[in-house]
Amino acid sequence: MSQPIAANPDRLLPADPGMRRVARSLYSLVESLPIISPHGHVDAAVIEQNLPFPDPAALLVTPDHYVTRLIHAGGVPMDQLGLGNAPVDSRRIWRNFCAAWPLFEGTASGYWIRQEFEHVFGLRDEPSADTADRIFDAIAAKLEEPGFRPRQLFKEFNIEVLATTDDPLDSLDSHQALAADPAFAGRVLPTFRPDAYLNIAHPEWQAKVERLIGSAAGGVSGYAGYITALEGRRRYFVENGAVSADHGVRTPATLKLDDAEAARLFERARTGKASPEDREVFEAHMMYQMARMSVEDGLVMTIHPGSYRNHHAPTFEAFGADTGHDIPFAVNYTEAIRPLLQDFGTAKDFHLVLFTLDETVFSRELAPLAGFYPAVYIGAPWWFLDAPDAMLRFRSAVTETAGFSRSSGFIDDTRAFCSIPARHDTSRRIESAFLARLVAEHRISEERAHELIVDVVDTAPRRVFKL
Amino acid sequence: MSQPIAANPDRLLPADPGMRRVARSLYSLVESLPIISPHGHVDAAVIEQNLPFPDPAALLVTPDHYVTRLIHAGGVPMDQLGLGNAPVDSRRIWRNFCAAWPLFEGTASGYWIRQEFEHVFGLRDEPSADTADRIFDAIAAKLEEPGFRPRQLFKEFNIEVLATTDDPLDSLDSHQALAADPAFAGRVLPTFRPDAYLNIAHPEWQAKVERLIGSAAGGVSGYAGYITALEGRRRYFVENGAVSADHGVRTPATLKLDDAEAARLFERARTGKASPEDREVFEAHMMYQMARMSVEDGLVMTIHPGSYRNHHAPTFEAFGADTGHDIPFAVNYTEAIRPLLQDFGTAKDFHLVLFTLDETVFSRELAPLAGFYPAVYIGAPWWFLDAPDAMLRFRSAVTETAGFSRSSGFIDDTRAFCSIPARHDTSRRIESAFLARLVAEHRISEERAHELIVDVVDTAPRRVFKL
Amino acid sequence: MSQPIAANPDRLLPADPGMRRVARSLYSLVESLPIISPHGHVDAAVIEQNLPFPDPAALLVTPDHYVTRLIHAGGVPMDQLGLGNAPVDSRRIWRNFCAAWPLFEGTASGYWIRQEFEHVFGLRDEPSADTADRIFDAIAAKLEEPGFRPRQLFKEFNIEVLATTDDPLDSLDSHQALAADPAFAGRVLPTFRPDAYLNIAHPEWQAKVERLIGSAAGGVSGYAGYITALEGRRRYFVENGAVSADHGVRTPATLKLDDAEAARLFERARTGKASPEDREVFEAHMMYQMARMSVEDGLVMTIHPGSYRNHHAPTFEAFGADTGHDIPFAVNYTEAIRPLLQDFGTAKDFHLVLFTLDETVFSRELAPLAGFYPAVYIGAPWWFLDAPDAMLRFRSAVTETAGFSRSSGFIDDTRAFCSIPARHDTSRRIESAFLARLVAEHRISEERAHELIVDVVDTAPRRVFKL
Q: Which end of chain C lies in a sparser environment, N or C, as judged by fewer CB atoms within 10 Å?
């Protein structure tokens, strides 16, 4: 069953020979550009401490819930993938993964892993029950080489900027250490992610807010202290290189409350008396406040609503969050985001990146919004949508209304450090494929396409994220 | 105006020469595989009694509401298509159909009928007012040949399994007779379809439920008897070869009520006092109960929500149900199906096939759900969506998130026995076309595509429907 | 940076050589057919008075909110585009536009403008900061030529029918003058557009309704007078050549109230006491009434719901309506339109064209509705959706369910007179491209495609709009 891994230089490019020729030439212009990753979930400490990566399963399987979920759907319980409390032999996890490999054919994870195996680890074998041990040994051996430490790979991968995602009370020690280290040339930037402090239904909201006010409100108490503390921590993030604040919300609702009403809601939540409606209203109000603060402190605001987190409660209880069952639902931005845009949609230098997991929003709402409001940028397709066909659907959906200038540039959003080059490479190939079609259909000139491919791959993320 | 009917062996395959070569080779692997039809609406008695089919209009026009609806939209009243009580000359109906033939260009029905004409009836003429009588005579002559009886066609069509759709109180006589007949080699399986017993707004609900409890509750009365009777009839279906239970519901809502509350609702409905909200709640509860029973008795559970049945009341009143005006609407699965999946989403050997008429659900909800829950399979595009472009959109929408292993395999869902080969052939061609694109774009190897085409056409329906 | 403008005769046709050959031959059949424009926003007085067009900016930039919105999103304030009260030098507006030209690459506006520049004005230069003045001068010179007057261009553009959009109390003087002028051979038809008289939340509703009743109710007062006046003005429009009545509504809701209830609502609105719910109910009722009147007087009824008008209040207050921030939202037709269709869906000679800005509605709702109801036609993709990829998605979404006979034909919906040929040409190329794919994939014969391309381009709008 073992097959050579496809390493075709034309992978993901269009089949039509004329389009492929154009796509190749576009891709060649961006293939080697540095990686700009303005949003992701790699831990800064991993780079800073530069420890060797653990074994293959702990690096590539257990922490990647896009991988574990499909093996789970195929019938392997979560605890046999290393997610439970009981230790499982890494090699056994790895065999489960390799035996399940055919499940990944045609998936985004499949494309990334295949390229990662080939380009990062130099593997030629197709994963399968038969090849599992051989591949495990080969990767394990690589992981012991000094060239496979995080900082060496950071350089090898040609990463220029890598943004992490951080708790507002994070000390940002690792970021500071990296910035101060003359031996490390990359930029590792923190991102302000206050979800747990804004969502009053979060199980730790009260505790976190007490700690926030206690440590960062400068003695001010109550709602005023809460706002002061958030503003203060944002400033601290800015001082430490942050360029954006990221918001995972249930819906894109926004709302402007007056201070007295907001304070009343805040106190109700603090004393455990808030209703589900209060949660909606308060979170909507805080989105408005976050926009106000972004206008003031310059942090790019990113919003990603529309995921039902931890859909399967028994799995959440046994294995925690981020275990593969965050399920998207329908989203409507047009009315919901309006209160925020009334006041800040044309604010000077305000950048608001709107993501969606609901593809219907791209052509219907995001392209028209971004085609009018200077503040609004269309977030790249991500999460389930950072895959070849989905990215092509995205470009087709937004370009005719909003052109190429109003989208965010690729976002890898990953915890899987070693997959970063494969993810960006996939995006670059697909952007080349899309533009090649426009050239082949005489919609744009090849000369202009040469400018646009560099713009969408390199200039857009720098411009949108103020890098 | 008469044209030769296109009988091109490459029909429905991609135009790009490179892709077409691959598609041809994939299609050749599945072209002659037996037909597995795990859900449809052919009457088992038709096969059992093996009577000749009636005339062309009564076979191909009047009972196929996908055909009559378009002719109706084109201005021909329903009663001139044989749907009213007054008898209409078959030849006149047939002329109406042939004169309307250009309306079907580019439609799914058009592809099937054209292939059926060519491959089942050996016709070369394009239907038109001019050719109507000649075609009528040719088909009528064929229908008198002994080789055109249902059982002979069953064999000729290479059907291995054909599931019917049956009332829970059906005796299943025809299924038993076919199973006991050594001269008949096919499998004709019943399917448990209890809609009218679960939807308390159904005009015959009370009468049907009385009959159900009276005949199958073993003396138990009330809600407990109702549940007992449903369980008993499911067992009877299992004993007679059923592999699935099918549920047409307004929304995908599911809910777990305690027995006392369910019994209260049941009694309110029985005494005609249920409100519209009661209907929603009770049907949602019964979907939960149906899942529980499927976990216990092994019947695959299939759900298809989101159709506004009998949209045009005057047509329904004059001509009955299934007359071409069931109109889809937007559906949201993520929250609605959650109560069911909390308890049964990872239940051993439970298979839950989720269909949709709302394409937005494929990438947004069904692929992520099926990519995590072992129980969930993505229902094939059917009803308005079992057409070439719609099937390609389906594969594009779900594959990158859920791969190829999480979908149900093709479902023909048809009442039109003679269209079964054309429908399955269309699906096989489109699956080949989709995989050929992935090969041509170097996303999967041709060797792997050879495995996948057999998997999606043949292995998937056997696996998902436990055949 | 200046590039030659692509004038490729194959623009917008498919890249695959086999498909392109077919597409070319289809396009050649319709390239020179007269333009039928059954809905748009050109002012009849412009044609009637035949005055020279003003300068390039006032012709091509300031009044086209698809152009100004993207430049605004790119950071240029509205008042620098000529939209404010303070006069701005035309040449400065023009330079802003030319400098922003790269923003339009890949957009619908970009395709139209490029073709307009090339084919109407004979320009070879790519717009840019460098070429702005040269292009301005070239266009300005053309605008002074006698051949560039509206009537000459009307003939040059080969326009056969041009429908305008008019207030119910419009005198239709210009239409009458054109119809009476033996020197003018085209047809310029009024369209009855009563939105402001039906939407009781419209700021001028009360004043307009008083005027309507005062001038056209024949002395009848109150709700009865209101209905009488609307009927009377419709008759006046019919007498002056109108073929359709157009309705821009928030949602597609329809409802049949009895006269007494409608009169009560009407009086509440008239005395300023109507609630937001009243608005919904009354507008839904009036949609039903408009359908009833259409059945009686023969005007084709067109509905376009689902746009959040004037989304950014500060821009609306400063610059008025139609300034680029009407933002679509999700729409559901199936339930909403049902009351109207119950009574009029099969009414003799009633034509109801349903438009949408929410693409999900095309395959899910509009194709099934139009595939059953003789009255229903699927409105062409327009507004943000009259662009190459969106038009291809439209055909793919509706054809397999509804065929080619159930859609409206292209609608340019434009205020920009000089863009009319480019818009229709784009549509003709894309229809050719879509049909060419069906031919190349052996779904339809090339002979039938030759009939269909003429049908969708020329016959359909004549048939649907009763021309």
A: N
